Amino acid sequence: MKVALVLVILLPFVIGIGLFLKSRLILQDVSLWELLFSSEWRPLAGKFGFFPFIVSSLWVTVISLLIAGPICLLTAIHLTQYADNWVLKIMHPVIDILAGIPSVIYGVWGTLVIVPLISRHIAPLFNTETSGYSILAGGIVLAVMIIPFVLNILIEVFKTIPIELTEASLSVGASKWQTIKLVHIRKAFPGIISAFGLGLSRSFGETIAVLMVVGNVSKIPGGVFEPGYPLPALIANNYGEMLSIPLYDSALMLAAFVLLIVVVLFNLASRVLIIRTERYK
Amino acid sequence: MQPDTKIEVKNLNLFIGKQHILKNVNVSIPSNKITVIMGPSGCGKTTLLKSLNRLTDLYPEMKVTGMILIDGEDVFHPIEDITLIRQKMGLLSQRPYPLPMNIQKNVAYGLRISGRKRHRGIEKRVERYLKMVGLWDEVKDRLKDPASDLSIGQQQRLCLARGLAVDPQIILADEPTSALDPLSSQIIEQKFMELKDHYTIVVVTHILRQAKRIADNIIFMYLGEVIEQGPAEEVLNNPKEEKTKAYLKGGLY
Predict the structure, then answer these.
(1) Integer Cα distance of B54 and B78 in angstroms
(2) Among the CATH numbers 3.40.80.10, 1.10.1760.20, 1.20.120.530, 1.10.3720.10, which is that of A2-278?
């Protein structure tokens, strides 16, 4: 049992060290700074600038959270505070089903529904033209994918708020909405942060569904209707194909390493926020 | 209704599903006195107390019939908004539940939500109510600290101050000392004795000695029914009902 435990604890470190060792080759040639912030991606010329990919990743991630965050928060509040019990009971299997759908299916759905929707209906509203394969499509598909995870945590978070706290607030004359706004959300804040943090991490790392709708053009996206090329898609599309090019392999490993670090940072940041707000619980 | 009756409960019945929790309860609670609702656990004391300011709304499974008149107004069919009626009553629960904010904001919470926001005024009032519950000297240097940093006895007094800050006429207390150490319990009891000149106080307790110490008026409940009610000396010294006698001797659970 202890061996298994140690294995599980060591796993992230082993993966991280493996990626780092593999990516050292390229770091000997080019500085990390240059790799991260150069936007020139010409592997044949030995130019590996990650900046467009990093920017694309941040775009789709932030958009997905901007869409999914408020939806999940409001849904969780409604389900736990206003809805009848049976609604919550049917929501649980719905959430499980959403969470269990393979990501490639989300990708297909995005290609068939979201991409045309953006090119035919949403983009014209903003007077732009787009193929639909865009940052926005990636963000929307990701939002749908992280909703079950974020929502699930939020429901649990709001359920754990003791009813006596609600009584205390109501009994000094607060309305139900004031109680939710001033007491519940504050009490739930650490939980909300960790739910959003999990959503961010999942969004940032999601590969196949995004890859199918985001366009995969390696330049810095100028807006949400332009195509992008997030890090995971870069790795998935190219690894194993063009490894005859010198340093390509190492560059992709570095991309994977950066991805890992960013996800870890998301986790750490949300943990710090949780600890700092927990005192007020 | 007698002129000094603050709360009048008429034919109150409360069901959870098929369970009959409160059975045809009729009580009158006099103003500016401490009325103690006593009885063994599970007799419906707390439920009766929470019906008074309609916290029963929070439990959709509860079905209530009958009337509760506060100053003659039925809380179940109020003319005013229910939040205004609730402001007439401060609630103290079994364990203190400070709101997730700092000490000062806890006390000011009721004022803030009812829109009385003038800043200077609020600070003065916070001070006044913290003094009233004897907490001011202990917390005056750390008003911005989270309320959860206080000891549990201090938290309970903070909750009392929070309730008092909205100028209630009634204080509802549900076994307010059951989570507290003897000294903190004593402080709370003492505060009640001081406050009863200005407030109508209703205390639920299952501690007989506490009832003897503080009660002016007693309501004895058993299995959802009010068995006996009246002035404390009468109920405690000359109980009319067999069940009350048995309970006072410690033979009824």
Answers:
(1) 11
(2) 1.10.3720.10
